[in-house]
Amino acid sequence: MLGSVAVPVAGTGEPGATAQLLPATGGAPGGGWRSHLGSLAFLAPAAIWLVLVTVYPLVATVRNSLFDSTGTSYIGLHNYQEIFSTASILVTFRNNVIWFVVFPFLVTFLGLVFAVLTERIRWSTAFKTIIFMPIIFSATASGLVWRTIFDLDPHIGLVNATTQTVANWINPPGFYPVNTAAGQTVAGLAGTGLRPGPNGSLESSSTVAPGSTAQLGLVGISLPALTLVGAHPAGTPSPAPGAVTGLAWRDFSPTHPTARGQVFPDEDGIPGLHMTLVRSDGSSAATTTTGADGLFRFDGVSGGNYRVQVDANNFKSGFTGVFFLGTQSITPTSGLDQTAQAILSVPLVDIAMIIAYLWIWAGFAMVVIAAGLAALNREVLEAAKIDGASEWQTLRRVTVPMLAPVLVVVAVTMLINVLKLFDIIINMAPGSSQGDANTLALAMYNYGFTGSPPATGLASAIAVILFILVVPAMLFNIRRIRG
Amino acid sequence: MARVILDGMTKRYPGGGALAVDHMDLDIADGEFVCLVGPSGCGKTTALRMIAGLEDITSGEVRIGDRVVNDLPPRDRDIAMVFQSYALYPHMTVFDNMAFGLQLRKTPKDEIDRAVREAARILDLERFLDRKPGALSGGQRQRVALGRAIVREPSAFLMDEPLSNLDAKLRVATRAEIARLHQRLEATMIYVTHDQVEAMTMGDRIAVINEGVLQQAGTPKEMYSTPSNRFVAGFIGSPSMNFVDLKTDGETKDATLIAGSTEVRLDDKQAAMLQGHGGRTVILGFRPEHLSVGKPEGPGLTMTALIDVIEFLGNDELIHGVSDDRDVVAIVTSLNGLKVGDQVALSAPPTALYFFDPDTNLAITPG
Amino acid sequence: MSTASAVATPAASKQRTLRFPQWIRRGRPVLNIVLAVIAIFWLVPTIGLVIISLRPESLFGQSGWWTALTAPAQLTISNYQALFGQGFAAGGLLDSLVTSALITIPTTILVTVLASLSAYSLVFGRWRGRTVVLLLIVGLLVVPIQVALIPVSQLYKAFGSVTGFNPFGTIPGVIIFHVAFGLPFGIFLMRNFYMGIPKDLLEAGRIDGAGEWKLFRRVVLPLGLPAAASLAIFQFIWVWNDLLVALVFLASNPHQTLTLFLYGQTRFFASNYWIISTGAMISVLPPLIVFLSFQRYFVRGVLAGAVK
Fold it and tell me: Given this model, what pLDDT does residue A13 score?
């Protein structure tokens, strides 16, 4: 169970390890030279395998990187020059740097927080299992799941659905939103007796006085929208003294598709329209809302001429979502040249993928750090309590410094992991964003295997760069083993 | 400095059946050095941790000074603790280890510096202030742990087997050092150990605990000379007290009790004391060091034993004998010339005899 | 002086503040709620995947999967029926499941056996240069597989022109590659475990006349079984979840691994999401079962492999 994991033994043999590694001289009784050979033979299959499929290719890749894509003509460092002068490859460096700077730190931090907090609850094993589980899913499956979570369409993407709900709650849309993105305009809704008014509203094209009625026909109002708000067939307005009355209706009859201005029985009133009675100087005299049959009535109106205004907020469109998997940069880069943009912008899709990757790896960080935590001397933490440290002070000044070696191991592991980032990008970033989300590992694959003919030289050069970047981690590991 | 009072202090672990600490009552005077001693798992460390605030108190009260501290976190209890593993902060220098508690209390820098240097001087650690614990020997680490407690000038020092990780020689030296420290600081100290010798030599008072229950508390001398029950009698003293079951003869009121080769002639006081137990079995206890070779006249214990093993201690020798299928241990002068396989007569004076009730295990005392 | 019974003074009792029962104070309600929210957040993607795979294709894009939480009637197993209904046709889901297994199981066995043998040689062998070889293997731990993709495919082709069997595009080709990149970690993990086996045990065996093979089979291998289990499980999940190696070495093969199968559907993401979600569900089941059955071993492997 996750709750009861022993201390990691990796990396450090016991103190006697070095002594045991020294070659022994002379054979033991019953062994002799044959046992030397025997145990050496145990290593042989793995050794041959490793030499052929990892060591030799490493050398061959260095060679390939100095040749063109046919692998026959030597072109020196030309492939490397191309890497550092191609904007679309520089983007991969930028992305690797973003991941490098942000991800190991965040995932280690999250792992530490989880490991520390989970010690203080009774259901820590369940919690750890839940957080840890994504690590056993393939990055392919995880990437595809997160791709839907961040989908632009609020009917698919949970994040945009949530954002939309919150945004519309704070700033509600009108009943009859006008989709400007699809080329609709408010003015286009003016049918009978209406003309475009100030600030995106509509107003009656003629003036009305108390005791008279206004017939306002709107076109382009969708039937589903009307059904949703519970529209009734259009009513007939009756004049009333001291009041302006009228009707707002959907001026489109399926039975008389070309007739305008006339109210047919199969035409609905438009309910819920916010209306203002406006004086000639533009000030508001009264407000009202249309009923289910589209009838409205402004009461207590003194004499004079007015216009009926259909307020702009009736047509306000709602929040339509953020394209989290898009290439929009969260850093301001407009006005820069293409190369500078490639290097300095941070596309949204990177952020979305980092979140998904945190979901995958936080459990790993947590489990490793929790094992380190379990191995700490409890009495030292108690000593801090008695010395007067609060939980926070104990964490910051005692626990974390004592855990430092484990935190470094987690961060280094994640650095290497992020360097080889491939599956999550290719699966989670949609085709339109993949160029901006590209990483070295993905670029290596694309150049090496998808082109026709594949740019093996360039791909090899990228692989060599990848290798050079892991060398510090390699030395870190070797140093850890040698102690 | 403060008085520490345990009033019915009880600990029950969730799920655990028996009480880890069972209604413990103990009044520790200001400046007193009290040793909590008992076999491992007896609840002594739990009791100490409850005083420190590292374990919740199920019921009862702990008072330090004039405050009930049950609900106070450790840092508000004004206590310092020395742990079995020393529990030094591995990433801090010796200086910072000692200064940490004061830094957390926002003590002015120069005052911290003064307090740490003073403690380092007392403990002979001045040369090591800049080192980290990893570069120190066990004895030095132990002194740092003490220093960390001293600089805080707490109301009470709590120590949890602080010497158990030291080798035998260093343990004796540090024992004396802690005793000196106690005299110098005149501080209240509560010291947990499983080693009754340590407890006897260091404590003003000893509290013997078994299975969560405080058996007896008193000065070392009281614990040795008037144990209140069979457990304390057997626990205090090394080697342990010998015990023999004896049947009293209720009918004749004879002042002699006999069990095999063991014979006890009671003096008048003892005879009166055992009156109420006439006809029943009592447990006789006598310490190895009170036995001598020979068969004197007058009241007291006499017995014969077949010598099984002799351990030579120098001036004395430790005799393991068998008497009527019972093991008997005696410390006698090595001038006796005894050999393994000898039958030997052993005796003890009436003042060296203890009697216990086999049902309650309590000591049978006059009156 | 015997046990002192202290008398509670009124002053002391008054200092007692209002006190909640211990189970509430220890229960930390705020922390529990915060962690519960985090746990739910962590479960959301998985729950979403499960639900999407159980919703009819036509509902994708019409309403969010979360609506199924209040209207569970929309759930159906038709997606599974449709995918299983295709049977074992090449490139289908079931065929991919088999292909993944055909790659993963031999790789796991090979890595575990070869790594155990090598670790034995490195720890208990008595030849010179073991330290150097160990450090080389540790160095190989972090080498990115990208450096080997092109040369190994060239090697495969060269091998093919000599022998007539070109492993490129075949299951053996994928296995050979996976084994090579699984070995350094495997050897390292087994070596760390073997270091803990007392040398005396082998010396005793040698005095009894056991040869190296016998010592390995009868002494070291049984003792190292927990580590071998960790390695095998770790390796199984690692290879099962691989995409890149399959993408390179199996692209030309009509039989695909599950990851390849899923990746292939992304070209028509929206219209194929019912296949993606259902396929993803099926692809995570084997690792999930292995993980839940051998959690302890897997976690041990992860801890030991905190360098890969």
Answer: 32
Q: Please spell the DSSP secondary structure of B9-66, one letter per residue.
A: EEE--TT-SS-SEEEEEEEE-TT-EEEEE-STTSSHHHHHHHHHTSS--SEEEEEETT
Q: Looking at CA atoms only, how far is residue A197 from chain C in angstroms?
A: 36
Q: Which of B81, B152, B160 to mutate to test the interface with A (most CBs of A within 10 A)?
A: B81
Mutation site for C-interface testing, chosen from A53, A123, A135 by largest number of C Cβ within 10 Å: A53
CA distance A221 to chain C (A): 21
Nearest CB among C118, C142, C187 relative to A477 is that of C142
Task: Give the model confidence (pLDDT) of B343-361 as tens digits.
Answer: 999 999 988 999 998 888 8
pLDDT of B295-329, one tens digit each? 877 788 889 899 999 998 888 899 999 988 889 99
Neighbour-count burial of B326, counting CB atoms closer than 10 A to its CB (0-12 exposed, 13-18 middle, 19+ buried): middle
Output the pLDDT for position B34.
Answer: 95
Q: Which of the residue ranges A104-113, A206-215, B143-152 would you say has the lowest mean pLDDT? A: A206-215
Consecutive H or E run containing B306: strand B300-312
Tokens of C28: 């930390």
Residue C66 CA to residue A355 CA, distance in Å, equals 20
pLDDT at B249 over 70: no
How far apart CA A75 and CA A458 sit, in angstroms, is: 11
The set of chains that have 3 or more CB pairs under 8 A with B is A, C
Q: pLDDT by residue (tens digit) across A33-42? A: 555 677 788 9
Distance between CA atoms of residues B90 and B313, nearest Å:
43
DSSP B124-150: T-GGGTTS-GGGS-HHHHHHHHHHHHH
The Cα B176–Cα A158 span in angstroms is 71
Cβ–Cβ < 8 Å for C281, A383: no
Question: Looking up tokens 């989908």, which residue turns up?
Answer: A151
pLDDT at residue A338, rounded to an integer: 76
C 104-133 → A contacts, CB under 8 A: 114-115, 117-118, 120-131, 133
C98 touches chain A (CB under 8 A): no
Measured distance CA(A462)–CA(C149) in Å, rounded: 12
Averaged pLDDT of chain C:
85
Token pair in block for residue A288? 């009202």
Chain C, residues 261-300, CB within 8 A of chain A, namely: 262-263, 266, 269-270, 273, 276-277, 280, 283-284, 287-288, 290-291, 295-296, 298-300
C1 contacts B222? CB cut-off 8 A: yes
**Whole-number Cα distances in Å, B294 to B63, B121, B343, B348, C118:** 54, 55, 11, 9, 73
* A402 and chain B in contact, CB less than 8 A: yes
What are the structure tokens assigned to A305, written together? 């001429």
**For residue range A218-275, what is the model confidence (pLDDT) as tens digits?**
888 877 778 877 888 888 888 888 888 899 888 888 888 777 878 888 888 888 888 8
ipTM: 0.87
Q: Do B84 and A380 touch (CB under 8 A)?
A: no
Asked whether residue C256 carries a pLDDT value surpassing 60, the answer given is yes
Return the exposure string of B84-119: e unless at least 16 CB atoms fall within 10 Å of the residue's CB, then b: bbbbbbebbbbbbbbbbbbbbeebeeeebeebbbeb
Residues of B in contact with A389 (CB under 8 A): 75, 100, 104
How many residue contacts between B and C have a Cβ separation below 8 Å?
Answer: 44
Q: In the numeric block, which tokens belong to residue C137?
A: 């293997």
H or E segment and range at residue A196: strand A194-196
3-state secondary structure of B190: strand
Please count the residue pairs, one from chain A and one from chain C, whose beta carbons lie less than 8 angstroms apart.
351
Put simply, the answer to whether C1 touches B205 (Cβ < 8 Å) is yes
**What are B149-182's pLDDT values in tens digits?**
989 889 899 999 988 888 888 888 888 889 888 9
